[in-house]
Prior knowledge:
By secondary structure, this protein is an all-alpha fold. It has two domains: 137 residues, no CATH class; 114 residues, Receptor-associated Protein. The protein is built from twelve helices and no strands. The radius of gyration is 28 Å and the shape is flat.
Amino acid sequence: MQEVFLRFFVSIGGAFSVYLLVGLFLGRNRAYQAFFSKFSAKNPLLFLDSIKVSPLFERMIAGRWFRLYFSQAGFVDSYPPERFLVLYQVFCCVGLFGAMLSLGLFSSLLSKIVSASACIALAFIVPKLWLLARVKKRSLFAARTLPALIDTLRMQVLAGLNLETAIRTLARHRTDIWQYELERSVFHLDSGLSLVETLARLQARFGAEDVHRFTLAVSQAHTLGASISTILKIQSDTMRLRRKQFAEERARAASVKISVPLVFLIFPALLIVYLAPAIIQVLRLR
């Protein structure tokens, strides 16, 4: 029964790996020629642009989460999403081959199942976790620098500029990730999109809740004709107050979290340091 189960697992994994590799290298005409010709270019990853991702892999493994997370990670223009999908597919193929190899290396059934499951889990989960970490890091940086950005926009609005002109001016003077995002917003405005649609696309490219609140408030103020400078001031003050409350909450929780290592690690070490010499002397007197 164990041999039948292992043969079935190996056959399914091998067939799926072969299907992914066939879809990977034979997805377009002359894929091998493009592979060997572009591999010697300055950028070794250029050959990935000529490889087609398997539709089954993109539909079942990547799913809808990939496009959203890839956009929020800031890789849409600087790094093609199809290239990351190809690397993800290769990583999954390597994981499947590692799982099949582990089935032949270990003798016990439990070792085979654990090692194969670990290889498959690492191959399919690690790229997604890396992308999620990138999204979280970018969202935290955007939320930390957003109040200063709002204050700069408010100063320009108070100086007599409208919001669109303020965004165009700010896009030329920023040097962080906001420069890239504001330049994309200026491109959308030049393409004929309204300010509300541009802010909606800006919000979709970030996973931070503060960016969502800011774009929603500015869009509503622009639609209803409210004062933009007042809305910007309220948003900036609210974000700073929220960050202050969050820092105070973390400070209050620190005393509770430190009690566990204090009781189980620090106190026993202190007791050993203080009582060990006395215990040794008592044992010697006996």
